[in-house]
């Protein structure tokens, strides 16, 4: 008897999309509104993964600045406005991502995105990159009122595409993704090229891979293909 096709849930930033340059640009705009200098991209990349509000807060901390909450919210809005207008200026799908998605779709896999980016921005970014229609669900950090590492958005994404957690996997690049997968009771494949201050192979994922053309074999090793 053939096993049901798996549900594959992808993180977005640092997993499917190289989005750091445009996120850095938005953070630079927010810091400039407070007359603060930009932070090098190499440093910002390790701050990504927890959502825009957290990125602004981490940027201020890195700049050695403590601001009252109302001002932090103002800078957060500056970030959002800038990012909304420039999210796809330099962002692009990682090499091999489209081919991997095509292969999974050809095998009948249910595909979803679960990111801590605001849902409307996740949908817009994937749309501008021509990839939104590949996914049966695009879940953001605000979709269910909680964000990863909580299990709720991951499980919600699986349900939204009619999947079964017993036949699901998370594909991510950070400790947040691994922890969310653990909370949801599903395995996690870690992409080594993403955004994390901790080396990818030390995150505790079930499998770590370096390229999208290794994904099929990784899923097969987990018994999902």
Automatic annotation (TrEMBL):
What function does this protein fulfil? Specifically catalyzes the dephosphorylation of 2-phosphoglycolate. Is involved in the dissimilation of the intracellular 2-phosphoglycolate formed during the DNA repair of 3'-phosphoglycolate ends, a major class of DNA lesions induced by oxidative stress.
Q: Which residues form a coiled coil?
A: none
Q: Which domain of life is it from?
A: Bacteria
Oxidoreductase as UniProt keyword: no
> Pathway listed for it?
Organic acid metabolism; glycolate biosynthesis; glycolate from 2-phosphoglycolate: step 1/1
GO-annotated molecular function: metal ion binding; phosphoglycolate phosphatase activity
Which keywords fit this entry according to its UniProt record? Carbohydrate metabolism, Hydrolase, Magnesium, Metal-binding
- Pfam families for the chain: Hydrolase
Q: Which residues form the active site?
A: 11 (nucleophile)
Sites binding Mg(2+) sit at: 11, 13, 173
Concerning its family, UniProt says: Belongs to the HAD-like hydrolase superfamily. CbbY/CbbZ/Gph/YieH family.
Cofactor(s) essential for the protein:
Mg(2+)
User: Per the UniProt entry, what are the Gene Ontology biological process annotations, in alphabetical order?
Assistant: carbohydrate metabolic process; DNA repair; glycolate biosynthetic process
**GO (cellular component) term, any one:** cytosol
Q: Could you tell me what reaction this enzyme catalyses? A: 2-phosphoglycolate + H2O = glycolate + phosphate
What is the designated name of this protein?
A: Phosphoglycolate phosphatase
Under which EC number(s) is this enzyme classified?
3.1.3.18
């Amino acid at each position: 008897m053939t096993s049901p096709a798996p549900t594959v849930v992808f993180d977005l930033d640092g997993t499917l999309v190289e989005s750091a340059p445009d996120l850095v640009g938005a953070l630079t705009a927010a810091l400039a509104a407070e007359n603060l200098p930009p932070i090098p991209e190499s440093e910002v990349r390790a701050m990504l993964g927890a959502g825009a509000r957290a990125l602004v807060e981490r940027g201020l901390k890195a700049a050695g600045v403590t601001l009252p909450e109302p001002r932090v919210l103002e800078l957060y809005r500056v970030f959002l406005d800038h990012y909304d207008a420039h999210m796809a200026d330099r962002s692009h799908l990682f090499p091999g991502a489209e081919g991997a998605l095509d292969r999974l779709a050809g095998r009948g896999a249910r595909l979803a995105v679960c990111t801590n980016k605001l849902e409307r921005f996740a949908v817009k970014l994937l749309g501008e990159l021509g990839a939104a229609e590949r996914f049966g669900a695009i879940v953001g950090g605000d979709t269910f009122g909680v964000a990863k590492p909580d299990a709720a958005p991951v499980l919600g994404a699986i349900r939204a595409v009619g999947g079964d957690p017993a036949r699901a996997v998370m594909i991510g690049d950070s400790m947040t993704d691994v922890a969310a997968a653990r909370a949801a009771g599903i395995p996690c494949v870690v992409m080594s090229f993403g955004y994390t201050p901790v080396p990818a192979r030390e995150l505790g994922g079930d499998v770590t891979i370096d390229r999208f053309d290794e994904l099929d074999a990784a899923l097969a090793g987990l018994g999902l293909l």
